[in-house]
Structure formats: C-alpha cells, structure tokens
C-alpha cells in the first residue's frame, strides 16, 4: 500500500479493530463520562415550575379525559337542528333550506295576505315622487315634444327643396403679405397700368399702357395705337383698374422704337414710380402687368433673362422696322401685354413690354414661350419726353443700309449701300465693308449696328471699326439725324 494513502485513510496508531476502545466511558461516573447539564435558571424555574406544595399534581390529562363534567345524556351538536343557521363545518356543500326561515305571512285561516299595490310613480321611478316634481316633469316632456314636432315639421317642409339659405363660417384673413411681396407690388403698380381699347370702324384692338405723369400722360407701344394714328375717326379709350373709362388722344409716336404717348383727362391719376434699367442684372426678379388678350390687370412674374438684347420687327403698315436694345425676360407676356409695365422687385418701372418670340400660328396670336422683350425705361423716358415736348423724336443715324454677315452669326454687319452725302459716305465707308464695332460697343449683326448708333446723340463723333478685304481699320464718323 502506498504509504501516503495509508497515512491518510488508515487506522490511527493503537487502534486494532473497527471500534476505538481507547476512550470508553468511566463506569464510576453516572453520566457516562459526559459533562452534567447546567442548572435551570431561577427565572424559568419560577415561571414554569411547580408551585410550592404541588409536587403531586399532574398537569397532563389522561387519555380520553376531556375535562368536562360528566353529563347524564350527551348534548346534540349545534347543526342537528334545521332551524339553526349553523351546519356541520366538516359536511359537504348541499342545497337546503334557507339559513333563516321566512316569516309566514299567512293569516290565521291559512290564506296569504295581499301586499300593498305600487303607485305609478313607484312603477316608473322605483320610489315615491312628490306631485310638484311630477308636474314639472310633465311640463318638460310637453316642451321637448313640441320642440321635436317643430323640427320635424321644418325638415318635412324643406325636404323636397334643393334651394335654401347657405350659412358659411368666415375666418379672419390669415394671409400675410409682407412689403416687397409680389402681391404687395401688384397692389401698388396695378392702379397705374391701364387697358387701352382702340376702335376704328368695325375693327379694333386692345393693349396696355402706363401712367407716367399726373397730367394724364400714358406711355404705350406704337403698334397698339397705330390704327388710330392713321384713322382720324378712330377712338382710343383708357380703362383704369376701378373701371373708369376715359377718351385718350395721341400725343406722339415713334415707330422706330415702337413707343407712343397718349393723354387722358382725369383728375389725380395714380402715377407709376420710374426706376433705372441700367441698374438691372440678369437674374433679377421682374413682374409684368398688363391686359393679355383683354384680361385686365394680369400679373406675371419672371426674371431678367438678358440685357442689351438687340431685337427687330417689321413696321406697321409701311412704317420703318422696329429696332431697340431690349430687356429679355421669361415673365409671361402675351398679345395685349404690349405697352404694359415691367417692374423690378421694388415695384419701379424698368421697361415697357413690347414683343415676344413665339411659335407661329395661323391667326398670328401665338402665346408666350418664355421669350419676352421690353423697351428699357431709360430709353422710354428719353423718347417720351421728346414726344411730349415736340410730338416727335429724332435718332442718330450712320447713313448706311446693312445686313448681318450671315444668319444667326456674330460676325458683324455688312454695308449693303451707302447714302450719298451721309455721315458714312463722308467718313469713307464703302459698300461691302463689315462694321464690327461702333464706339465701345461690339457689333454682331445688323440690329446691333442700329442700336449701337442710337446710343449716341446726333452730331457725336464716333469711331467705327471696319473690315475691308480682310484688313481691319477704324474711321471717325460724325453721326447725322434720321
């Protein structure tokens, strides 16, 4: 055997068998060698011990002794009587008679006595009710019935009718229109924009105009009043936003720039605020106000798409071609907007709407495709003042007829013929020369040559750059008058 395991699990030394005989109790000691129990505490002995002189009293009852005195006969249990409400708590649940017997309401003869009869209030309300309360309840019932009858009569009388009175709950205006909003600008500009009606015999037309002076001067397009300018019997009527109609007379026209001034006799008209077109930049917000297709005071919004856009259009009934440096905008402009106002974000006049580029139509009434053109207000005021002062306007002129070098190109304006004795002839400009610059402005086509010359005053000496036989050179030209 392994000595380590023998030392751990083996018998101790001196033990021969399975039981240890080394520690046997001492027979001389009555407790078998165990220590004696300590004495009982005096307090416990006094509380639970026998009282003095009661050593022979046995406290525990013998078996079968209940402690009750002996009786002659055993007493029946409480639940043995049917009239007793108690029952054997160890018995199972059974259906039996009531715990407390009902009182017998039979009379001496064995017949049941009838109970008291219930009154109507007791039947309806379950208890007695005072007469005054019953009367009040009756009055309320009559009133409710009468009201229901009236409502039924009203519904029945109006049930077959499709017409009636409509009551609409109106709310306070909650729309905020801050200063400078489109609504605010339109509200300020619209009273100064008029609708112009022209009647000549059985024909006529409609356009727009803008009041620029308190004396009743209105600027518009020449093509709006051209029919009346040729017919002395024609009538021109200006219609204001409040419906006021006033006869108008032509003060003067400028077919070359498509401008005209008319005058009405009204007291204290609303005059538009005049801005500066030179301050505009592409991307600025603009608003067009006019009467497209006769729809008075129509407001549209857009931006400045381009500036200094030379445009040209045929003249009216033999008039010279219309050419001017335009403000291009994508604000919707349609026939009837002609002569109306183009205003900036402050509501100041920056242009007079004049023409649009559109797709062709059989009746010539094509609509807006986002290419509208307005005459800059700086040019409008200058020409209008001349028309009001003298009834006519003069423009600077070079004295040549030119055409674009090639369609839809920007190679310059080629001289087709030179007016004898005119400014160009005196400066040595010849037929076939290509003009590429007038003053500081580049000339890309024939229309831009016209507007570049009109930017100057009559009598100004302007350098004109030419290309002749591929050789560029510059000549000075003293501008004349048309």
Give keywords.
482 residues, PDZ, 26% strand, Thrombin, subunit H, 6-stranded antiparallel β-barrel, 6-stranded antiparallel barrel, single chain, alpha+beta, 19% helix, Pdz3 Domain, 9 helices, elongated
Layout: helices, strands, pairs:
Blueprint: H1 3-9, H2 42-48, H3 120-125, H4 131-158, H5 182-189, E1 193-200, E2 203-211, E3 217-220, H6 222-230, E4 235-239, E5 245-254, E6 259-264, E7 285-290, E8 298-313, E9 322-329, E10 341-343, E11 349-356, E12 372-376, H7 377-390, E13 396-397, E14 400-404, E15 413-418, H8 423-427, E16 434-438, E17 441-442, H9 446-454, E18 461-468, E19 471-478, E20 480-481
Protein model, in words:
- It is a single chain.
- With 482 residues, the protein is an alpha+beta fold.
- Among the domains are: 182-264, Beta Barrel (Thrombin, subunit H); 277-390, Trypsin-like serine proteases (Thrombin, subunit H, Beta Barrel); 396-481, PDZ domain (Pdz3 Domain, Roll).
- The chain has 9 helices and 20 strands.
- The strands form 4 sheets. It has a 6-stranded antiparallel barrel with strand order 1-2-3-6-5-4. The protein has a 6-stranded antiparallel β-barrel with strand order 7-8-9-12-11-10.
- Strand 8 (298-313) and strand 9 form a beta hairpin.
- The model has no long low-confidence stretch (mean pLDDT 80).
- It comes from Prauserella muralis.
């Amino acid at each position: 055997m392994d000595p380590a395991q023998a030392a751990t699990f083996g018998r101790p030394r001196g033990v021969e068998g399975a039981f240890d005989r080394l520690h046997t109790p001492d027979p001389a000691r009555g407790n078998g060698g165990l220590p004696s129990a300590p004495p009982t505490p005096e307090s416990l002995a006094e509380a639970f011990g026998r009282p003095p002189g009661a050593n022979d009293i046995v406290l525990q009852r013998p078996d079968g002794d209940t402690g009750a005195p002996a009786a002659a006969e055993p007493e029946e249990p409480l639940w043995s009587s049917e009239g007793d409400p108690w029952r054997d708590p160890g018995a199972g649940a059974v259906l039996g008679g009531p715990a407390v017997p009902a009182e017998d309401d039979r009379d001496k003869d064995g017949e049941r006595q009838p109970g008291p009869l219930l009154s109507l209030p007791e039947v309806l309300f379950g208890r007695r009710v005072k007469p005054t309360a019953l009367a009040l309840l009756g009055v309320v019932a009559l009133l409710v019935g009468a009201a229901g009858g009236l409502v039924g009569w009203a519904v029945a009388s109006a049930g077959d009718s499709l017409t009636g009175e409509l009551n609409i709950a109106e709310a306070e205006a909650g729309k905020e229109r801050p200063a400078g909003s489109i609504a605010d600008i339109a509200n300020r500009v619209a009273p100064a924009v008029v609708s112009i009606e022209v009647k000549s015999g059985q024909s006529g037309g409609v356009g727009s105009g803008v009041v620029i002076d308190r004396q009743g001067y209105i600027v518009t397009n020449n093509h709006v009043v051209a029919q009346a300018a040729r017919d002395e019997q024609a009538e021109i009527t200006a219609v204001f936003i409040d419906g006021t109609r006033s006869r108008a007379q032509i003060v003067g026209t400028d077919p070359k720039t498509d401008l005209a001034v008319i005058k009405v006799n009204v007291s204290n008209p609303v005059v538009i605020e005049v801005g500066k077109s030179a301050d505009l930049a592409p991307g600025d917000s603009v608003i067009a106000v006019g009467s497209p297709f006769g729809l008075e005071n129509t407001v549209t919004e857009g931006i400045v798409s381009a500036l200094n856009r030379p445009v040209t259009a045929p003249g009216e009934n033999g008039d010279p071609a219309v050419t001017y440096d335009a403000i291009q905008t994508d604000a919707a402009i349609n026939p009837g907007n002609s002569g109306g106002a183009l205003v900036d974000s402050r509501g100041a006049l920056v242009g007079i709407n004049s023409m649009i580029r559109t797709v062709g139509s059989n009746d010539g009434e094509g609509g807006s495709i986002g290419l509208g053109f307005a005459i800059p207000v700086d040019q409008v005021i200058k020409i209008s003042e001349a028309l009001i002062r003298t009834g006519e306007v003069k423009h600077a002129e070079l004295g040549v007829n030119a055409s674009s070098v090639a369609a839809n190109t920007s190679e310059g304006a080629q001289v087709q013929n030179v007016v004898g004795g005119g400014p160009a002839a005196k400066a040595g400009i010849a037929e076939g020369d290509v003009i590429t610059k007038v003053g500081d402005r580049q000339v890309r086509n024939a229309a831009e040559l016209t507007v570049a010359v009109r930017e100057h005053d009559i009598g100004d000496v302007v350098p004109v750059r030419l290309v002749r036989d591929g050789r560029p050179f510059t000549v000075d030209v003293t501008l004349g008058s048309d």
